[in-house]
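Deliverable D5.2: sample structural annotation.
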Amino acid sequence: MKLILVRHGETASNIKMALDTLPPGPPLTEAGLVQAQALAESLATERVDAIYASTALRAQQTATPLATALGLEVEVVEGVQEIYCGDLEGRHDKEAFELFLAAVHQWTAGNLDATIPGGESGRQVLDRFLAALDKLAARHTADDTFVVVTHGGALRMAALALATNVQPALAEAGLLPNTGRVVLETPTTGPDTGWTCTSWTGVDVIT
């Protein structure tokens, strides 16, 4: 089974570097729409069985060109939205980013109970995100490929939790560009050893 986790395309909040996490959120910019089309073209030869997107508008808009190209529908799913930033929501100042990154650093170091002020803990993020992915994976057979269009922060945390070969340093420092993707796979033969990351935003990962 192959799971392709995709970060959404560019939004105005990305340009402003604002912490904008609450769905439905802003739409894609013109550049973001171009990125979404390029994503569809780059995955045109992939045998994709299903396409899912978070409840955020930007994720759904990113998924739509790919779904159209492959003759599929975009299914919106709960649980794979971005890390909720609470009191930091809408801010784009240095202090807000430092507080956000400090919480993420604690999560990657193993302290999942650390909380963004007024927002989520790492445990809350992973509990909802991994539960959603488990439900989606249960719909598919061992040789299926499915795409989930989601968000950079939550995506990186999920990949760290799921893939045995993703180290904390990669999850913390391996920032994903808009429409960047992480590919996870399970073994096609032999014992089920869980997910392995085979590609991180286009760079092969040692398995």
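Annotation notes: Strands lie at 2-7, 50-53, 74-76, 145-150, 181-185, 196-200, 203-204. The longest strand covers residues 2-7.
The annotation will be released with the project's public dataset once the embargo ends.
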